[in-house]
Amino acid sequence: MRRARGYQDLDDNAADSGISMAQMPPPQEIEMASVSVVPDDTFTVTQAVNALGFGWFQVKLSLCTGLCWMADSMEMTILSILSPALHCEWNISKYQQALTTTVVFLGMMLSSTFWGNISDRYGRKTALSMCGVLLFYYGLLSAIAPNFLWLLFLRGLVGFAIGCVPQSVTLYAEFLPTKQRAKCVVLLDCFWALGACLEVALALVVMPTLGVHWLLALSTIPLLIFALICPWLPESARYHVASGQPDKALATLEKIAQDNGRPMLLGRLVCDDSVGIGQRGRLKHLLIPHLRNTSLLLWIIWMSCAFCYYGLVLMTTELFETDSDGSEESCAADCRPLQTTDYMDLLWTTLAEFPGIFATIFIIEKCGRKRTMASQFVIFAICVCVLIYNTNRTFLTCVLFLARGIIAGLFQAAYVYTPEVYPTALRATAVGACSGVARLGAMITPYVAQVLLKNSIVIATAVYSMAALLAALACLALPIETKGREMRETVTNTT
Hints:
Layout: H1 2-17, H2 27-31, E1 36-43, H3 45-52, H4 56-89, H5 94-122, H6 124-142, H7 148-162, H8 167-173, H9 178-187, H10 189-206, H11 212-218, H12 221-229, H13 237-242, H14 246-260, E2 265-269, H15 292-325, H16 340-351, H17 353-367, H18 369-386, H19 393-421, H20 424-455, H21 457-477
Parallel strand pairs: 1-2
Helix pairs in contact: 3-14, 4-5, 4-10, 4-12, 4-15, 5-6, 5-7, 5-20, 6-7, 6-8, 6-11, 6-12, 9-17, 9-19, 10-16, 15-16, 15-19, 15-20, 15-21, 16-19, 17-18, 17-19, 18-19, 18-21, 19-20, 20-21
């Protein structure tokens, strides 16, 4: 109606001034000076997000989402510090050390699809708000656990809450323009690397004086901050449209336009969603004919990625321990707390994630998602094989530095590809399912990195190398390359 009135005024002015319509500039050109126009009078969320571009709205969302990732990273990094500390304090065995890690990933695996369903049915913001509160609560309770069994139980609940964290990537990716999406999602891993470095630095200060229980308590501070800012998180406009709430989606898009200083598109917001409102968030739809091969291959990739990443994190402290002791023999009665040199070397290898992230940003837009992930898996396999030639500590640190950078960038490349390849109605469920399968690999890895490694470093590294090479083949076999591709709204369109 506003457009019609504008055209009528234009006609009246032309008549009053004696100017013919042929001499007048086209009305659409006049409108373009103040608003964006879609020719067919309708637009989708994807068109709106691309037209409104990257601006202050996305910067604020990056900080909120990044805080969630930083908190998650601290809870994951503490696992490599917690095991040796409990070995000394409670005299637990190697199998029990591995169990403290496995129980966290078990909780994550069991909850990932649950959180994916919550996100698709009730919204990304709702799921993340629940996650923030539960994660802080159970993390704080872990710090006062009176014995090993209570600690296992509470860390399992921490893992259950962490299973929702990947949904922050879903929310973030749905607000990113197509051209900036890969770069921004990969850069989000900077917050993960920052959290890992912060946890190691915190352990370096806290562990020698206050001990592991204070470390667990202080590590929950970012979780508390995230829980407090969750009410200000925006809900996904794609979710609102897919769930039949276009008015709320339009209000969110207008907020983006206001924050970014861009004109709002005119026309009617529409959604082409063939999945249907009643079928959102169903795990079985990931295995329909159009998506079956993609889903199965991604599950292999995610499981291998988590298996290799967390395996390398756990192997780092184990290899440093072995190198310092000069022996691979250990028993429950032996206690060697991590020293300052161990924490410093752990910090150096963690810092490797930053160059790995920036290298991935450069490569992923040049070579595409599939070839980037495949090449990174191959390089990681080579690095792990080299670990058997552990001649000195400097050589060990350099190889771990390279391997950590590669696998960190690889994990983030998987986070770029997965939301891009699935439609809106299944996106959160798909990310949750991939995350759940990944935790299966993470559950297994402590028994390789902390138990098998003590018996044979050759067999342990061979297992990681084979897993990486298998995943590289899976990457090349993926049927869809998503480089330069808009996020899909429908499940039937696979091109």
